[in-house]
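Researcher: Quick one. two chains, 228 residues in total.
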Amino acid sequence: DSGVTQTPKHLITATGQRVTLRCSPRSGDLSVYWYQQSLDQGLQFLIQYYNGEERAKGNILERFSAQQFPDLHSELNLSSLELGDSALYFCASSARTTHTGELFFGEGSRLTVL
Amino acid sequence: DQQVKQNSPSLSVQEGRISILNCDYTNSMFDYFLWYKKYPAEGPTFLISISSIKDKNEDGRFTVFLNKSAKHLSLHIVPSQPGDSAVYFCAASGAGAAGNKLTFGGGTRVLVKP
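Model:
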């Protein structure tokens, strides 16, 4: 158990819809990262928050947005969903701002867009 | 543009023998490298890391080697055990243009046969 909690674990929805994925980081971790893994591919970095502020951005689509709340949990919002958005979405947390230490990953949220 | 590549999608090895996983990178700004292990239905878990100021780091059965001139790193698992069967991802991070994020390879699926 990494200490990172993601909900929901599975989500099935239709094209054009909007979903919200939630992540609770490990206790005390200030950094939250979101990654997308499609079809047995590597993990693609989407976005990082540190203590409520956006810290780094990857190849995140404009239809996607995220935020980190004062209690440090984070939400990833995916809108106008397309078939290609079907993927595993991982949240990770760390105590640091940079990747010089390990990240602790949640079990992921599997999104299926039909 | 794949900055981190794992050219072998899968590897099969006999229990007790050595597993060698390879990873190549292109971005010379990367200065920290990590290996993560992933079991089905779980998030990736940190395995071992190496800083670019070193060429070897060992932790029990796991050793990571870094060849900066070749922009290549490898993970050796000796001896391999059935519980090592998983997908292994190499990842890299760095300052400056590499950004404040981890860049992952596509993964290598390892099967250790009893």
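Residues 20 and 76 of chain B are 5 Å apart (CA to CA).
Researcher: Thanks, that's what I needed.
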